[in-house]
Amino acid sequence: MIHIQGVTKSYGQGNLKTDVLKDIHLTVSEGEYVAIMGPSGSGKSTLMNILGALDRPTQGTYQFQGRDLSQMEAIELARVRNQSIGFIFQQFQLLSRLTAQKNVELPLIYAGIRGLKRKEMATTALNRVGLADRRDHLPSELSGGQQQRVAIARALVNQPDLLLADEPTGALDQASGDNVLDLFDGLHQEGKTIVMITHDSEVAARANRRIDILDGRIKETSQAGGSV
Ligand code: ADP
Ligand code: ADP
Questions:
Q1: Which residue out of 138, 140, 146 has the highest number of ligand 2 atoms within 8 Å of its CB and is therefore the one to mutate?
Q2: 228 falls in which pLDDT band (50, 70, 90)?
Q3: Where do the ABC transporter domain residues begin and end (predicted)?
Q4: Distance CA 204, CA 194 (A)
Q5: Which end of the chain is less enclosed by CB atoms within 10 A, N or C?
Q6: Which of 10, 11, 89 to mutate to test the pocket of ligand 1 (most atoms within 8 A of CB)?
């Protein structure tokens, strides 16, 4: 699904040029559950932005589902993102004036899905995360754990091929974080491909494969404790 070869990402020019990612090679197969782990400033978010088609590498190639995204125009990248990738963020990024249901419907609005179909799809996604009974609540009326589950429903509602999660438990207490990771386990068992960024080794251990990134380089790839 993901095939990254020789990817470098640089910012600035001339003497001020810094390589934030350095000669990254990475392959992720369909159905894998991968944690990318590294300290602050190691390049995790930069790699995530490339994986999520939010940004392009300076050098190297990124093939996603057989298509080379490294040369793609921004508008085409947006299409890949909307159709194939679901995003989960540390701070949930829900719209505060919209109910849980409406937040989950948003990607479907962008996809041009209307009326009853849209409602049904959002309800299915909210059911999947166990929050159908909170559909009419605003984010401020939900706990952090519940807000993240709404955000996961929003990420799932388009049935994306890849789920990208950036510190998904970073803003949650232990119990709510575990709940989110249990949800990821279930999605992995259903065959979803998941790439999760974290700086927490206990969180990374929940994935089936761990990739360490340090100073812009992939340091090692080792199997973590999780079961396949
Ligand atoms: P992490 O997510 O692991 O904390 P980042 O990918 O955010 O790391 O950043 C890696 C390095 O790249 C940091 O040193 C950061 O300052 C630098 N960096 C990130 N984005 C930019 C940018 N737009 N311009 C210049 N430097 C950047
Ligand atoms: P979770 O494990 O899903 O994070 P919590 O244990 O944090 O749930 O919250 C328990 C209950 O308290 C939730 O069902 C939620 O409805 C309610 N609750 C938590 N935080 C808030 C809040 N800020 N406003 C309203 N209700 C809240």
A1: 146
A2: very low
A3: 2-228
A4: 12
A5: C
A6: 11
Residue 115: phi and psi, rounded to 5, are 50, -135
pLDDT one-digit tens code per residue, 202-212: 999 999 999 99
Going by CA atoms, what residue is nearest to atom 20 of ligand 1? 46
* Mean pLDDT value of segment 50-78: 94
Q: What is the value of pTM for the model shown?
A: 0.86
Nearest CA to ligand 1 atom 12: 20
Among the bound ligands, the one closest to the CA of 199: 1
Distance CA 126, CA 38 (A): 32
CATH of 2-223, one of 1.20.120.1630, 3.40.50.300, 1.10.3470.10, 3.40.50.2300: 3.40.50.300
Report CA(210)–ligand 2 centroid distance (Å): 32
pLDDT digits (tens, 9 = 90+) for 171-186: 999 999 999 999 999 9
Model confidence over 108-137: pLDDT tens digits?
Answer: 998 899 999 999 999 999 999 999 999 999
- Give the relative orientation of helices 115-128 and 100-110 as an angle to the nearest 10 degrees: 120
